[in-house]
Amino acid sequence: MRALLIFCVSAALLHAAISKNGYLKLRLPHRNSPPGSSNIVIVIVAFSLRSLDAVYQDLSNPDGVEVTTEGVTILVNETWSPPNPKISVINQDFSSPDVTKNIINSFASSMTSGQIDTLVDKVGQNTVAIIMSLVDAWKVLPEVSKGWTAQLSGDYNVVEDKGLGGTLIEVPNNEFMSAIFAKPDPGREKEFYENLVPETIDTLRESMTRRSVTEEFPKVTLYAGSYELVETFSVGNHIYTSTKYGYKMAASF
Questions:
Q1: Rounded to two decimals, what is the model's pTM?
Q2: Which superfamily is assigned to 4-252 in CATH?
């Protein structure tokens, strides 16, 4: 049986205090665990907010050079001219918050087979751009076997932490998104899951080393999106920028 699970979160952060990454995690219940495995299997989706912001920094740099936008889509208000004209963008009618929200969500839905139909819940009237990274039907493991599990085999970034009680294995999609399989040690499942907070995951990823991996994990298909929403405000002779970041995902097993 394949079930569709939907998890979502969004964040509003000051531009100067951007977090490096955002995370969503899924815990498969014990009844789905394959024979011989730990009681739970944890799948974490890592979203690189810093990579999204790097695209915006290139877009807002009048002295910037042409850069690739592979892995992202940039929608901009048709009344706004990005300082760097060398980056490919899609001009849209952002004439009102409702119009802007509908355009963004319709685009996200079309790029994720309808699974992410509400990427943003609210936009401001001064929105000038949104930078989105969207993944459609990403099969993290190869579909080479029947059943609900498949073998992950190859060289990957791995970290094992006995104090925390488990092992993390990262499978990248692109610079904006990765999947992480988290394997708890026997008897440490609940503790391990609860300790996997964003700050801890960041620290563990910084400690990863390249290793050869051969492990059985659930076959998972991911539909996911992250974004940076940009608004501008004029106060006197000054223009201020506000940014909001968010991410959503749907996963089928």
A1: 0.88
A2: Alpha-1-antitrypsin, domain 1 (2.30.39.10)
